[in-house]
Here is the input.
Amino acid sequence: MRHWHSSFAKRRKASTLLSRRMMTKLGGASWGLRGCLLIAALALIPFTETRGHAKDPNYFIIPAVSTSKNDGVDVGVIVPFIYGDADGRINEIVAPMYVHNQFLGSRFTLNLFKYPARGQDITLITSFTERIERKFILSSRNLYLSGGQYSLEASGGFFKNATARFFGLGSQTPAANESNYTDRELYALVTGGLYIGPGTRVTITERLRNVEIQTGGLVGDTIGDTDNDRNLPSSRVVFPFVKGMNGATILGHKLGFLQDTRDDTVTPTIGSFFSMFAELAQSLTAEATTVFSRYGFEYRRLLPNETKQYTFAFRAKFDATVGGDAIPFFERSTLGGQNSLRGYGVGRFVDNDALLFNFEERIQLFHLRILGTVAEVETAPFLDVGKVTRTFRYRAFSQYEANPGIGFRAIARPNVVGRVDFAKSNDGNAVFAGLDFPF
Here is the structure.
């Protein structure tokens, strides 16, 4: 088994893994901070491999400006302290962060990342927001147990997301149905994996999820209040009879399979990725216990030309939830957000099943030297097409949402991707910034 993972490790250097984890957590884990500007992302590049001693960290200040369809605008600063050993391997990052959100006020966050060895990491994220939002998340993983035969991942925590939206169930929910709630969750999950071939793994996941639906951070004193930005109606008031509005505890048992032939997991240029899963779950409430199941698959393909100046990227993704009307809405399939239908906010469409197609033509424009590092600058016209539905037995080829758009990316291989995507949809225009590829 060892030789399967040695070749994989050469493609994905330890620094790649470490910097990607740092970038993802700093730029994407916070619901209020969905991504920094490209210049902030590129500012990290010279520090992805440090030569400092653990007692003498590198630190730097990054201005953070972000926007999200649901979360609004964040403005603030991140100050990462990077600790490395004598060989230049990053083994710890401490990153305090402050941002001001236009809806929820000031947010203070402390991010801690430790990397004891290759394929191992420990993450702790805590944050406190002036209004409503709180977060405490602890996670750990080891991808190469027993000489690379097994993997083990675990995470758990508590959070409140005060800008969650709900428009109702179905593919034809109008934008006028927009409502807001606070998603309060307490969760834990454990995933064990067995490598069965090169880049191929079978996984088993056990998860526990406790959800409460509380008053949202954008709900005004009265519906239609225009004196401030928090003027959305409460989801519990508008949709009192939708299953899940009273919360639930979910216990899930999932079997997964994945195969990855891409040349890199962070900044791939060629290859494919395939995953599928099946899960049996229970929804436990004060009134009843509901048994349901979830299934899905995802396929990605990258097709470059000979010079790799042009790369066609494609993704097909399908999710299905089976179990009747008693399934909570937050356990059903969803579409919308920066990695889905990019013309809509996160969770814009909700129903039993979801089908998504993403098409991108990634075009390399030129190379740019920033802070001593050469970065590729590319543009990516794209088209996202998808729908949610109660069942695909009827209208299987109609009622799809399609949003065209264009993206701009700055890439420092193999560590960093910064992007800004502009998309147009029936709900209007949307802008998403992020620190990774959408797929």
Remarks:
- The first strand starts at residue 58 and ends at 59.
- Residues 2-434 form a domain with the Porin fold (CATH 2.40.160.50).
- Residues 14-28 form the longest helix (15 residues).
